[in-house]
Amino acid sequence: MKTISLNINKHEYLKNLFEAIPSNVILYKTLPGIGATHLELSCERHSIIIEPHVPVIEGKMLKNKDTVLGVYNKTSKVDIYKYLSNPKILFKKILCTPESFITKVIPVMEDLGIDFYTNFFLLFDECDRVSKDVGYRKNISKPMLHFFKFLNKAFVSATALIPSDPRFEENGFEIVKITPSFDYRRHLELIISNNPKTALKDLIHRLVKTKDDSPIFIFFNSALGITSIISELKIENETSIFCGADAKESIKKGSKKNRYKICEEINGKTVSKFNFLTSRYYSAVDIDLPDGMMVHTIVLTDINAAVHTIIDPYSDLIQIPGRFRTSNETPDRLKSFTFISNVNVDLPFKTTQEAKGYIDGCEDGYNNLITLRDTTQNKGFKELMQEAINSVFFSVYINEDGTKNYFMYDNYFYEENLKSYYSSTENLRNQFDHLPNEFIINFQEINYKAKSFYTNVNLYKTYRERILEVINLLEQINQEDKTLFIIQNDWKTEIEHIHTNYLELVQLYNLVGKDAIIKSCFTKNDIEMQILKYRQNVDGIRSKEIYNELNINLKLNLWYDQKALLNTMQTLYKKYNLPYTRALASLENFYRFDKKTVKGYPKIKLVEQKFKRDN
Known about the structure:
By secondary structure, this protein is α/β, with parallel strands linked by helices. It has five domains: 3-180, P-loop containing nucleotide triphosphate hydrolases (Rossmann fold, 3-Layer(aba) Sandwich), CATH 3.40.50; 186-343 and 424-446, Rossmann fold; 352-421, no CATH class; 461-520; 539-609, no CATH class. It has 25 helices and 19 strands. The strands form three sheets. The protein has an eight-stranded parallel sheet, with helices on both faces. Strands 12-11-13-10-14-15-9-16 form an eight-stranded parallel sheet, covered by helices on one side. Helix 12 (316-319) links the parallel strand 14 (295-301) and strand 15. Helix 3 (77-84) packs across helix 4 (98-111). The N and C termini lie far apart (90 Å).
């Protein structure tokens, strides 16, 4: 595609360059916040603007209440009918999510007989999200089935990716690149650490010690990772979390108490001292703050928490600072800008050549299945081939009309390339050498004694995975002298959280060591049984004492009140320092038992001992 470069001066906006966004262009803004959406909303034509994220739509609606209709999950088709039928609104302006464009906007316009392909300008904002997000959000690319049917249309983003879809070339698209005529670089503190969470906590401690009252904004795409950090810093009463409905639900499930201030709209009322934001706020959202308010901005990637926390230096780090809207009184919102990340030498990725070979092989295999289906005369074989075609993962690379989904291909190559950045410190550091116009880098490498550990994130892993992670962490703690550990590290808090959530595992580790646990422990019950066996073998006298006491106090084949029995067992656990809780699962280590309910009260009959009587 042909590229046209247009200069823009400091304090200028797109409205200084265009009366309206031209058609058949990929508008590469370079700078976020220079008014692409504003220009389209204010120009005199009918427009549909596709926005990948709901907060952007909600924000624009607040500023344009009387003229703009936002269409997303809360919007009904009746709302769209009323808006499009309102004669007082001369130029219709619809902001919608990609999904609502397909399921709501298009059907209503068809019902009303509107020739939308001719009469509406279609603008796909933050267009790079199509290629970047389609891997986990397939419907984001569905508007492309209609996009090229519009007479007037455009892609726009400050961090645009050039799509491989040949229809752009076939429709005569050009790339319009906006080139700033001034120095727009930002100072960026780049910290690469084996423990991003601790590096973040150390940075926050330093900022707090300076008695700087400026809000701290932390962009981190892990809701449970966020709650782990908040809990460890004990800042629940000073924190706001900005996230979507799914993340909000994860936080509720992972929290024993609903103690977090969770918001969707960012303004002067919802902002706290500490503010955590998930990825839906990385691009396009306007963060409007009171005049004079400046902020410390921290972006966090921690592969130990989740691979999806990975940040794209070429887009996310450019987009995030642009979320904070400036004013004449506050021309710059950022007091500081920091990116903290780790790397993982074991992170699997494919080179571009390997990725191409792999995806070409998948495509060939998929096409072979289609050939087998279409050439057989046997109905059973044909149906079997169709089931295979539908079930193979490559089917997501094909649109519903049977055409190739080029954005899925772009996403595959993008994801593999992005993972490669994080395969070593050198690779990640080198990416910033390719961004000389965007950042002035101050680089630090800070390594701690152990990698980061997230209590709340680990709750969603299998217990075996949690065992291995905790054991490896304990090994890291114990393999060096503690005096070698970085002084700033709040390691006491880390140890407290491990002891609180994995007390039995820590006890067993101290008794038998790593290898025995890895060999024999897969569940929490395995850990309890191993502790019991150890104490039977190593602490036999005390074991005999508890067994003798059980023989004296509890008889087989009698029905006991469940509550009273469990209270008795808990008293014995404490007396003999056994790592069990007041639960039926703990009782199972000592007895096989039956249960029943009498008049609403649970009863237990001890049927058989699991220990030997003291003769």
